[in-house]
Request: fold
Amino acid sequence: MNLWDRFRSGLTRTRDRIEQGAGELFKIRGPIDPAARARLEEALLEADVGPTAAERLVDRATERMRKDGSLELQQALERGAAELLAARSARFEPGAERPWVALLVGVNGVGKTTLAGKLAAAFAKQGRTPVLVAADTFRAAAVEQLAVWAERAGVELVRARDGADPAAVVHDALSAATSRGRDVVLVDTAGRLHTRQNLMGELEKIVRVCGRVIPGAPHHVLLVLDATLGQNSIQQAKEFGRAVNVTSLALTKLDGTARGGAVLAIAEDLALPISVVGLGEGIEDWEPFDPDAFAKGLFD
Reply:
């Protein structure tokens, strides 16, 4: 499937929810009366778009229709959503640094380890030499899971004994990657509740260690959010942003949610770019985020 087809398939439940509430309005052209607007906003809220993002999206759509009388509401919504998302888009890809270091952070169960494996496999396929770092030293299953992904991807894994200091593991991994001439390092950090200050402090320590070993590292901090949580993930993101300088967001499990509209709310409320989306469990079931394809998959 092409990118739009993958988004469309993944967003089926979300799109169905919007269409159930306002699908018959999609062919409207010209001005929207207050009753129709209220129904539309309610349908968007049902898909977890959120009140602020829903209002902005409808405002943009109605303004487009006012300027272009031939435009249908569905088209206007699609273009408005793409515009809203494009203002804060980014790519998760290595820069000129060698090695380029990226941290994957987030709460428990959002899919960081799986995503790290998928990204490593993609970089290896591009001819890069990625290293996966198992910095979740307190959950043995996480290390073993990452080892399976490293084997599937055919990439190097750096791990330590259970209970080792995560910052020390990262220090050794970055030193080894530098000496061996590796070009990408992906650090899978432990899932941590954003309310646990000691764990957030540990994450801050990992960031400091990265910078001591490789000046300027980490070059990217990817905050992984579970799309099925909808807007509940926004507070998580805000707390992580207070502890580390988040570069971009990854949204996982997008294929299994009726709350995919939260992507609009997340982009609107956090003012952080979205770089990656997960669309399944397979090694290639992820995509770089594309605002146009996502918006089309949401409304078309």
